[in-house]
Amino acid sequence: MTWLELQERRPAMNAQLHDEKAARLRLGGIGRSLFWELIRAGELRSVKIGKRRLVPEQAICEYIARLERQAGPAAPAA
Q: Higher model confidence: residue 1 or residue 17?
């Protein structure tokens, strides 16, 4: 079972919106520059409510799942 499938089993969490700091922490503590670069490039979906830019939990899950697919299967431990 992938990380995304586990997250999809918790529908209440998928409706949550994260501000910049919380989203960066959910993404492993990435920096501000990389965070805004991902949003500008369309790699990470976000919504704007008033003056605030928020990232849905589902967008974070989708981004991580995409990274997992790009990485391919993990190599067996030696």
A: 17
Count of Cβ atoms closer than 10 Å to residue 42 Cβ: 8
| Model confidence at 24: pLDDT above 60 | yes
Say how far apart CA 24 and CA 36 lie, in whole Å: 10
* Whether the Cβ atoms of residue 39 and residue 76 lie closer than 8 Å to each other: no
Structure tokens at 16: 């949550």
Q: Which residues contact 55 (CB under 8 A, 6 or more apart)?
A: 17, 18, 20, 23, 39, 44, 45, 46, 47
Q: Which of 35, 19, 15 is nearest to 27 (CA)?
A: 35
Query: 72 pLDDT exceeds 90?
Result: no
30 and 24 Cβ atoms separated by less than 8 Å: yes
The reported pTM is: 0.73
